[in-house]
């Protein structure tokens, strides 16, 4: 049995990665969250603390564009 729960393990990984990675205005950070049903993507400038762009398969326009594409 693992030492940490699934949620605790995810948070620990997130903190470990974010300790070394941050986005800037010149090179923003790409954040991708993939659930079983949807995909969410954000482009983030950590220096300013703002989300520059976001997209999700919940959006009908994007859903139509990715329909029929293979998942990998």
Protein described:
With 72 residues, the chain is α+β, with helices and mostly antiparallel strands. The chain is 28% helix and 28% strand. The protein has helices at residues 6-18, 60-66; strands at residues 29-34, 39-45, 50-56. The chain is flat and about 40 Å long. The model has no long low-confidence stretch (mean pLDDT 88).
Task: Break the fold down into its secondary structure elements and pairings.
Layout: H1 6-18, E1 29-34, E2 39-45, E3 50-56, H2 60-66
| Structure annotation, total helices | 2
Count of β-strands? 3
Strand coverage percent: 25-35%
Mean pLDDT: 88
Defining key terms:
single chain, flat, 72 residues
Give a short overview:
By secondary structure, the protein is an alpha+beta fold.
């Amino acid at each position: 049995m693992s030492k940490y729960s699934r949620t605790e393990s995810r948070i620990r990984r997130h903190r470990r990665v974010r300790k070394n990675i941050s986005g800037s205005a010149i090179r923003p950070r790409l954040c991708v969250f993939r659930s079983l049903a949807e995909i969410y993507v954000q482009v983030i400038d950590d220096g300013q603390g703002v989300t520059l762009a976001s997209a999700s398969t919940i959006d009908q326009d994007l859903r139509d564009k990715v329909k029929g594409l293979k998942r990998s």
